[in-house]
Amino acid sequence: MFKSLLWGGVTVVLGNVIWLGLINYEPTYLGAITFQYLTPAVAGFVAAWFANQHKLLLGVAFGVLSSIAIGAANLLFELLGHKVDFSGFDGAVIVTVWSTPFCLIAATLGAAIAVFLLHQKSLK
Q: How far apart are CA 95 and CA 76, in angstroms?
């Protein structure tokens, strides 16, 4: 279970660090935003893949962590001197709340894919 939590957390942190790098250099932000919203699905997949038990539940939990990381990244992006739509701590909370449903859905899909693939692998 520790391995699952570790790799899922690393995926979330790495995804948001890469997002901060992409958003500084990409003129349209489309790739950066797409990358940020794929991060919860990948984290859910990784967490479920490495989990010994409760695979789906651990994968879904990374949806919440991902939404918190998105809010924190929004705040950090503002602190680095960039303009954001929702500024300050209140803005970070708004971004976190609004991104939570999407992150939960994405993490659930990622975890479900991992559970399905592991089930198929065990049948062989």
A: 13
